[in-house]
Amino acid sequence: MNRYSVITEKNPREIVLLRGSGCKWRKCSFCDYHLDFSCDEEENFQLNKKELAKVKGTYGNLETINSGSFCDLDEQTVEEILRICGQRHIKRLHIECHWQDRHSLAEIRQRFAGAGVEVIVKMGVETFDAAFRDDVLLKGMEHAKPREIARFADEVCLLFGLTGQTERSMRGDIETGLAYFRRVCVNLMTENSTPIKPDRQVMTVFEKQIYPQYRDNERVDILLENTDFGVGGE
Ligand code: SF4
C-alpha cells in the first residue's frame, strides 16, 4: 500500500497515510477503511516514522490521514509529526477527526499552535441530510447541523454515488459545504466489502451535471477514485 504522496494541484500539499489503533466507531454502513489499523503501538510508530521520513516540506503544508481520527495515533507518532513539522518548516497540518472525537481537537490544535503549526481539521460528514447520514449510513453524528459541525471542523468530506442521491441533493451538499467550511472534498463511492454498492445512475448524474461545475473550483477536491490523492489501494 502506498502511504506517501504529493498533491500538486489545488491546495498543494504532501500527504501521508498513517496507521493508528483504528476507528473506534466502525459502524458506518458503507465503510471498510477501518480495517487499516493495528493495536501494536510500536509497530504503528515504526511504520509511521518510515513514511513521515519521506516528507520534504516542499509546500509547508502536510496532510496526515489515518483510518479513524488523529487522536487514534500513538503518542510517539504525534511527537514525530511535531518534530518533522519543525524540521521541515511545515506551517499547516491537515488532520482528520470523527464527530465522536471532536472534543479531542482543542488540545491538538493548541499543542501544534505552540509549535507554530496551524491545524486544519477535515471531517467526513458524507452528506448534510442528517436523517440519511445518521439513520441509514450510521455515521454517528447525532443529527448535528452544519453550524454545529463547523465549530469543530474546517473542511468536510462528502460521499456521492449512493442510491437515493439526486442532482439537487448533491449540489445542495456541496453548496452547504462551501457556505460553512473552507474546503470540500467529494469522494465517490467505490465498490468495497460492505453491502452498500455504488449506484451507477447516481454516478452518471454526478459526472454529467455536478462534476463539470465544480471541477475547477479551488475549494473543491473531487476524488473519482479513492486512491486519487496517491495513497491507499493495494
Ligand atoms: S468513522 Fe470513518 S473510518 Fe470509521 S467506520 Fe465511519 S467512515 Fe469508516
What does the model show?
With 234 residues, this protein is α/β, with parallel strands linked by helices. The protein has a single domain, classed as Alpha-Beta Barrel (TIM Barrel), CATH 3.20.20. Helix content is 32%, strand content 20%. The chain contains 7 helices and 8 strands. It has an 8-stranded mixed β-sheet with strand order 1-2-3-4-5-6-7-8. α1 (41-52) links the parallel β2 (13-18) and β3 (61-66). α1 (41-52) runs parallel beside α2. The longest helix is centred in the C-terminal third of the chain and has 15 residues, at 200-214. The protein is globular, with a radius of gyration of 17 Å. The chain starts with a strand and ends in an 11-residue tail after the last strand. Bound molecules: iron/sulfur cluster. The site of iron/sulfur cluster has 12 residues, from loops.
Name some characteristics of this structure.
234 residues, alpha/beta, TIM Barrel, 32% helix, globular, binds iron/sulfur cluster, rSAM_sf, Elp3/MiaA/NifB-like_rSAM, Radical SAM protein
Radius of gyration: 17 Å
The CATH class is Alpha Beta
Q: What general form does the structure show?
A: globular
Instruction: State the order of secondary-structure elements, H for helix, E for strand.
Output: EEHEHEHEHHEHEHE
In the CATH hierarchy, the architecture is: Alpha-Beta Barrel
Q: Give the tally of structural domains.
A: 1
Share of helix, binned = 25-40%
Classified in CATH, the superfamily is Aldolase class I
The overall pLDDT average reads: 95
Q: Which stretches are low in confidence, meaning pLDDT under 50 for 5 or more residues running?
A: none
How large is the share of residues in beta strands?
A: 15-25%
- Enumerate the distinct ligands: iron/sulfur cluster
Instruction: Give the structural class.
Output: alpha/beta
Read across the widest sheet, the strand sequence of neighbours is 1-2-3-4-5-6-7-8
- CATH fold assignment: TIM Barrel
Which quaternary structure do these chains form? single chain
